[in-house]
Amino acid sequence: MASLDNANPLVFGKSTVRKVIPEEEDDNVADEIDSREVFDLLKNLNDPEHPLTLEELNVIQQAHIEVSDKENFVNVYFTPTIPHCSMATLIGLSIRVRLLRALPNRFKVQVMIREGTHASEEAINKQLADKERVTAALENNHLLEVVNQCLNIKEDS
After folding, report:
1. pTM of model > 0.85
2. Does residue 106 lie within any of the structural domains?
């Protein structure tokens, strides 16, 4: 087995499960997409190296998600567990795919590494913003299989 980039990651707790309010269940009430909803879509994604979620590793935080339902954009800033994480591009791709599959098509989705948290953040951010490169990556069957493993969401217990 290959060695792990971060063999002993710091594990954080999980957020509390958000209670659903009656207005959210009412199909007649317009429910804007907000940072909490986007966080809920991402928090249980699997880390590609560890049997932990992106929330448990503090890779995803609600405070680092910007959403404008009116202006149709979602920006997610994630934090790799270490500055030389070789899985950062794969994590970003998994986040992007999850949002593209879950959100209405009207949203412009940007996924970026938080400034100062990765040695190659500029290059990785450029890759994640390039639609052609993302599309090409998802045409690679092996890579798509790995992304889908990250998207195999573990529900809250």
Report:
1. no
2. yes
